[in-house]
Design goal:
Helix content is about 55%, strand content about 15%. By secondary structure, the protein is of the alpha+beta class. The protein folds into two domains: about 80 residues, Ribosomal Protein S8, Chain: A, domain 1 (2-Layer Sandwich), CATH 3.30.1370; about 30 residues, no CATH class.
């Protein structure tokens, strides 16, 4: 197990899971606390990177709200604050830009006779008449 895996696992077990069980909406994790708990002296940048990384927050259904600390972002004083995202949340689905596009061209396809009719017409007219006659010979 790598240091990053140990950091993510510790942060999950000590901070994220207890916050979820208390039904909190946010959780903050201070890099210095992780460094101290795991005895990672001199590994502060690894702790900060693990806490800010997508692998941690996506794997725990979190949304990184803010990172407080020095400009370098590599200090024991860095505090990462996350929103605890409910995986069944309808509101998060509504905010998904890809899902907002669903059905965007429904009226256009309806005018063209439906999606399948449109695709058939496109496939039939994909090749020019001259290339069709070459294929037939």
């Amino acid at each position: 197990m790598t240091d990053a895996d140990k950091i993510r696992l510790h942060a999950r077990e000590k901070y994220v899971l207890p916050a979820r069980s208390r039904k909190e909406t946010q959780v903050s994790i201070r890099a210095g606390d992780i460094v101290r708990d795991l005895g990672l002296v001199g590994r502060t940048p690894a702790v900060c990177n693990a806490l800010k990384g997508k692998k941690f927050w996506q794997g725990n259904n979190l949304r990184l709200i803010r990172v407080n600390g020095p400009k370098s972002g590599q200090s024991t004083t860095v505090v990462c604050t996350y929103e605890l995202v409910d995986t069944k949340s309808v509101s998060s689905r509504r905010n998904d830009p890809w899902l907002q596009l669903r059905g965007a061209l429904k009226s256009v396809f309806a005018e063209l006779g439906g999606g399948e009719a449109y695709l058939r017409a496109e496939r039939d007219s994909f090749y020019s008449e001259s290339s069709k006659s070459v294929e037939r010979k």
